[in-house]
Amino acid sequence: MRTILILNPKGGCGKSTIATNIAGYFAMRGKNVSLADCDQQCSSNDWLAIRPEHLARINHVPLKKGRLHVPIDTEILILDTPASIHDKKMVKILRVAQTMIIPVLPSAIDIRAAERFLKDLIKLRRKTVNNKIKIATIANRVNEMTIAADKIEDYLDNIKLPNGRKIPYMALLRATQNYVHAAEQGKTIFELAPSRTYYDREQWKPLLRWLNSKRSLP
Ligand SMILES: Nc1ncnc2c1ncn2[C@@H]1O[C@H](COP(=O)(O)OP(=O)(O)OP(=O)(O)O)[C@@H](O)[C@H]1O
Ligand SMILES: [Mg+2]
């Protein structure tokens, strides 16, 4: 089973949005996908609950007594995580994932929070057995052609690990109500009218290529 983790302790950066869209994308490609919501807000579970039956099926992963009960035939597990996650829980989650995506919003506050989080993450990564987890960043909810858009691109494009390797910056997702409308209907943007979401689908391509390649695996 492959596990993809969406993590950034900063609230509202788009973790659940990215998690549900990735889950739907792989389910549409015929994979047996489970979506686990480690978040008490249960945004991903709420989304799953209203997902129309005729769309590609995604398994719900019940959280019982702090443990996730993942269906055994799962091929791809998507882990949506809460804001303000504490270190102990983060280490636990980091141990089981092969791939991690960090969404960041284009604001000075979010960039500073991401800097702090990445520092902590690098420390934790050394401590965890899973030092090989592949990480990528994405900029989310970006209003293009703004100074904030330039700043977030510049920041994400230049993040390096202590060994000098770059953390790949994989996508810029624009701010659009398409994500809001899709979420309201238990859908992904890949399940809305292509004419309306063409631009968004294009923006997802580099991230999806990365997820489909060995580069995103240890
Ligand atoms: N690219 C986008 N364009 C417009 N709205 C977006 C975009 N991405 C996310 N949103 C909206 O922003 C809000 C926050 O997104 P989301 O719930 O995915 O964030 P989160 O990181 O999971 O939040 P939390 O930390 O509270 O779990 C939601 O209303 C979502 O629909
Ligand atoms: Mg969430």
Can you give a write-up of this model?
This protein has one domain: P-loop containing nucleotide triphosphate hydrolases (Rossmann fold), CATH 3.40.50.300. The chain is an alpha/beta fold and 218 residues long. Helix content is 40%, strand content 20%. The strands form two sheets. The protein has a seven-stranded parallel beta sheet, with helices on both faces. The mean pLDDT is 93. A hairpin with a 2-residue loop joins strand 4 and strand 5. It has seven helices and nine strands.
Pick out its properties.
binds adenosine-5'-triphosphate; 7 helices; alpha/beta; two-stranded antiparallel ribbon; binds magnesium ion; 218 residues; 9 strands; seven-stranded parallel beta sheet
